[in-house]
Design brief:
- The chain is an alpha/beta fold.
- It is built from 13 helices and 15 strands.
- The chain has an eight-stranded parallel barrel with strand order 6-7-10-11-12-13-14-15, surrounded by six helices. A five-stranded mixed sheet has the order 1-5-3-4-2, covered by helices on one side. The chain has a two-stranded antiparallel sheet with strand order 8-9.
- The longest helix has 17 residues.
- It starts with 11 loop residues before the first strand and ends in a 15-residue tail after the last helix.
- Bound molecules: ligand TNX.
- Ligand TNX binds next to loops.
Length: about 450
């Protein structure tokens, strides 16, 4: 039998000896058995097609597996029995639609690809210095002034934003795929576009101008102006009301222009505003300096697979300790180590065909995206403290769907496997992923999907 294009690898995959599986056209009625657990499923393709799933999401994951089993099959499924369930509850992709805007249609395509890889969270980075991408009723200036710019400028029409109806449409599509959307409003730094609309929220002497560069850390909301919190309450309440999922992300990263005292003042208020709006806050791990983190809040860790200490870090931050402070206050961490899952990094030699940044220590090869172990990043925390794994696609240098897909594929598939599949006892090796990924690559080719032919895999015969 040809090697099935199964990425991520199921927990148990057994070949049924001597048989061919059911015909590819066969439909299946999925039996729901809550005892199996969230997103879990058991399927067999022989002697007949049968699927049991723990919930509706599990039924979707089973169908994604059937679709992969069908790739390259000749009339019948291979005869297999599969037992499967996710290692981590949160398997995400962060898409930065602020530095460059991507239309709803591209977001839908990204969601479809995520579902094929059993990813279940799309985190939209909706606001930053270069763009404000979500309509907020009552604050039209945010999008009138903040949605026309993007990194690098570009010929009109540059920028763009999602109306509330667009945001609804994105979430509806995501829901059909068993994917939850997390909106991020990045505060108190990364707020140049918010300040364009509301210059009264800037600190004395800061005059906001449209910004299309790639620097970070120069803008801030005034932590000592009550109007800042009125504004944040407006934005957070609308977004919370419009968001199906339980989380709202506050950003909180790279507030380099702010005093530590102002940052702490701001965080305490901002966390409380999200809780009052009925959502669980998420924030980048820098926000772990706060001693008033609400129970259940999640710190998104973006430093390296081997965390840098305060002496090694250019900002003097002890990254692991900041992340751990979420857990000490009853929260959890979401792992996005930048030298493994930052998809804006280039993938090989950095030549003209290999665009991307490299600030986290060089290129991120397929091996770099795959051969890391989540429980070893912050080992003192333990597996229960890890909500999950999330890849991040920042878009300062990503302007088109084609560039986006070439950075995402195939590394996103490798990361999806790290997040879903159990840790192999002998460690992860690209060589084990390679034949399955190559089979998936053949399908991407068939569909005309752009992807990077990583040098670690022989893609063609
Ligand atoms: C760091 S790590 C950022 C983003 C940039 C990205 C570029 C973190 C939370 N923030 O503002 O877009 O690097 O790689």
């Amino acid at each position: 039998m040809p090697i099935p294009a199964l990425v991520p690898l199921p927990r148990v995959l057994a070949q049924v000896s001597g048989g061919v599986g059911a015909p590819l056209g066969d439909d299946v009625v999925v039996e729901i058995d809550p005892a199996l657990g969230a997103e879990a499923y058991v399927l067999a393709t022989s002697p007949a097609l049968s699927v049991r799933a723990g919930d509706e999401a599990g039924a979707l994951r089973a169908r994604a597996t059937l679709a992969q089993l069908a790739l390259g099959a000749d009339g019948n499924y291979p005869a297999v029995r599969i037992e499967d369930s996710p290692r981590f509850a949160h398997r995400g992709l962060m898409l930065d639609v602020a530095r460059h805007f991507f239309p709803v249609e591209t977001v839908r395509e990204v969601l479809d690809l995520m579902a094929e890889l059993k990813l279940n969270v799309l985190h939209l980075h909706l606001t930053d210095d270069q763009g404000w991408r979500i309509e907020i009723t009552g604050h039209p200036a945010l999008t009138d002034l903040g949605a026309r710019s993007q990194c690098g400028g570009g010929t009109p029409p540059a920028g763009g934003y999602y109306t509330r109806a667009d945001y609804r449409a994105i979430q509806d599509h995501a829901a059909r795929l068993g994917i939850t959307v997390i909106p991020e409003i990045d505060v108190p730094g990364h707020t140049n576009t918010a300040l364009l609309a509301h210059p009264e929220l800037a600190v004395a002497g800061f005059v906001p101008e449209p910004y299309e560069g790639t620097e970070v850390g120069f803008s801030q909301l005034d932590a000592n102006n009550e109007a800042t919190y009125d504004f944040l309450t407006d934005v957070v309440s609308q977004l919370a009301a419009d968001t199906d999922g339980p989380y709202l992300h506050l950003g909180g990263d790279e507030t380099l222009a702010m005093t530590p005292e102002d940052y702490l003042t701001f965080l305490e208020r901002a966390f409380a505003i999200v809780v009052a709006a009925g959502k669980t806050p998420l924030a980048w791990h820098e926000a772990g300096c706060c001693e008033a983190i609400p129970a259940g809040a999640v710190g998104q860790y973006w430093n390296l697979v081997r965390p840098q200490s305060g002496q090694e870090d250019r900002f003097g931050i002890d990254h692991a300790d900041r992340a751990a402070n979420f857990v000490r206050q009853g929260g959890r961490v979401l792992l996005s180590p930048s030298d493994a899952v930052y998809l804006d990094h280039h993938q090989g030699d950095g030549g003209p065909d290999d665009p991307g940044v490299a600030w986290s220590g060089g290129p991120i090869t397929l091996r770099g995206a795959y051969e890391w172990e989540p429980s070893a990043v912050l080992p003192e925390l333990g597996e229960d403290a890890i909500l999950g794994v999330e890849a991040a696609l920042w878009t300062e240098h990503v302007a088109t769907r084609e560039q986006l897909l070439r950075l995402a594929l195939p590394r996103l598939a490798a990361i999806a496997e790290v997040a879903w599949s159990p840790a192999p006892a002998e460690g992860r090796r690209v060589a084990d992923l390679a034949p399955r990924l190559r089979a998936l690559g053949a399908e991407w080719d068939r569909r005309g999907l752009p992807f990077t032919r990583s040098g670690e895999i022989v893609w063609e015969d």
